[in-house]
Amino acid sequence: MKQVPAPLLALALLAGGCAAPREPVSSSSSQFLPGPGPAPAAPSPAAPRAVAPPSSDPFAPPDRTQAPWSRTPVRLLGIGEVETGTAAGGTSWRVGTARGTVWAWRPPGYRPREAGVCVYLHGYFTTVDQAVQDHRLADQFAASGRDALFVVAEAPAWNGEDGVWPDLDELLAETFHRIGLGRPPGPLVVVGHSGAFRPILSWLGDPDLEEVVLLDGLYRGEAQLKGWLQGNGSPRPRRLVLVSNETFPAAEALSASVPGAVSLGEVPAADRGLEGTARTARLVHLKSQYTHMAIVEGGEVVPVLLRASHLPALR
């Protein structure tokens, strides 16, 4: 997937606008052949065709064949269809549901009595299947070394789409039923990039949700996230991790408003990871040295954050 210019994506997410692509200007030429009699006069040049301005309707259907939309081809699945395969040394499933494709991955060494669950939501301009391929998610999950069942679900791909899975429990029940596994008892962690903040905000009422990792996605919802973080509805301590590039001002402000929060000037290297209080603080803010799309495409961020999450380590 091509990198989205920062001003474009920020405008789309903050203002709720998703501009339609400009229509190309067409051109034509005429050729006159010699013949008897005087040559016909050349017609007056046609006035240039006007270029349509970007749509002011934030919910105008986008042209998914144009950048920045991913154009990685995928095969559609029927409802109830399940494809089993291998990826990054583990087992993968593609599941067709009424709410779109769900992709699940189980690492080698998975322990069903101790493992957790990690739900990953993609950002705008892509789908589950495209994000799995374009962002090499299986490799990133494997690099984290976490003992978890990873579930990648559809999320809104542009402003005109609602949350695809309004209920987190429904998503997990459907996934585990289709792949034939029981839900493990460990922590439930949700990771979302960019516009995935929208469904994540609607999931904050789930009592099992104990950790949210928001990858440059704090475009709205600061009060909701702070309220969730400070609530007492979870049997385990809650934790919020913010990675910011475009969203730095909002993330820094939220971090400053939470006592005991830790702010870091960069995402640490994989061989160092989060250290000290950054591993235990209930709110951690990392100012990213990577661009908005590199945060999920480069492989340097997601494994580091998962290693520091509540998810148990593989043995």
In short:
The chain has 315 residues and is α/β, with parallel strands linked by helices.
Describe the structure.
The protein has 315 residues and is α/β, with parallel strands linked by helices. The chain has a single domain (83-307), classed as Alpha/Beta hydrolase fold, catalytic domain (Rossmann fold, 3-Layer(aba) Sandwich). The chain is built from 9 helices and 10 strands. A 10-stranded mixed β-sheet has the order 1-2-3-5-4-6-7-8-10-9, sandwiched between helices. Strand 1 (82-87) and strand 2 form a beta hairpin. The protein is globular, with a radius of gyration of 23 Å. The protein starts with 5 loop residues before the first helix and ends in an 8-residue tail after the last helix.
Strand and helix layout:
Elements: H1 6-15, E1 82-87, E2 90-97, E3 100-106, E4 116-121, H2 128-134, H3 137-144, E5 148-153, H4 168-179, E6 188-193, H5 197-203, E7 209-215, H6 222-230, E8 239-244, H7 248-256, E9 262-264, E10 283-287, H8 294-297, H9 302-307
Parallel strand pairs: 4-5, 4-6, 6-7, 7-8, 8-10, 9-10
Antiparallel strand pairs: 1-2, 2-3, 3-5
Radius of gyration computed on alpha carbons: 23 Å
The general outline is globular
Per DSSP E runs of 2 or more residues, the count of β-strands stands at: 10
**Name of the CATH homologous superfamily:** Alpha/Beta hydrolase fold, catalytic domain
